[in-house]
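About this split. The held-out portion is used to measure sequence recovery: a designer receives only the structure tokens and must propose an amino acid at every position. Recovery is the fraction of positions where the proposal matches the reference. Here is one held-out target exactly as it appears in the evaluation file.
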């Protein structure tokens, strides 16, 4: 009996050690995986295996150069799965294509049935803010007729001065009803 316990304890210790190695292993050669690996990257182009399908300008003022001085967007894999949100500052252009230096990333949230992510169409305490990203629940009563949805359980806002995402209370956020997508 003692030998069986010793073997089981040894196997658990080995499994835990292996899990710890995986947790601290460097990102694969396919491109950045952890959030810190993205910070400082200039995009596009995105590393192989990654792209951005959704984004929007987040102005810092009213002049032409300030209207799109920062942006937020998604980092998606080649199968169109959103993995992260990025915050970025405009660092130049190549022709008509803007170039963005990533200043922060947050994981794309896991969504429950009926939930959607709203990006650049939200308000905080009744004031429009294109730097807000929130989860909304579209399965609420009368959803089709609603003009706005309250954020349900997660929301962040781009701090334009620092270029970083900050959490905001979902109870302070509402977002426009952009119409339900096919499930």
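Reference sequence for scoring:
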């Amino acid at each position: 009996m003692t030998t069986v316990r010793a073997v089981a304890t040894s196997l658990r210790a080995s499994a835990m050690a292996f899990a710890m190695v995986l947790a601290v292993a460097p990102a694969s050669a396919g491109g950045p995986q952890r959030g810190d690996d993205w910070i400082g990257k200039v995009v596009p182009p995105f590393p192989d295996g990654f792209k951005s399908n959704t984004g929007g300008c987040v102005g810092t003022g009213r002049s032409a150069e300030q209207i799109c001085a920062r942006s937020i967007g998604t980092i998606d894999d080649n199968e169109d799965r959103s993995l992260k949100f990025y915050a970025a500052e405009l660092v130049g252009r190549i022709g008509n294509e803007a170039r963005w230096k990533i200043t922060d990333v947050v994981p794309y949230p896991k969504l429950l049935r009926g939930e959607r992510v709203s990006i650049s169409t939200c308000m905080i305490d009744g004031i429009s803010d294109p730097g807000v990203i929130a989860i909304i629940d579209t399965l609420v009563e009368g959803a089709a007729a609603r003009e706005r949805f309250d954020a349900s359980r997660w929301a962040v806002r781009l701090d334009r001065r620092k270029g970083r995402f900050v959490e905001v209370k979902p109870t302070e956020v509402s977002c426009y009803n952009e119409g339900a997508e096919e499930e």
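Annotator remark: DSSP finds three helices and 13 strands in the chain.
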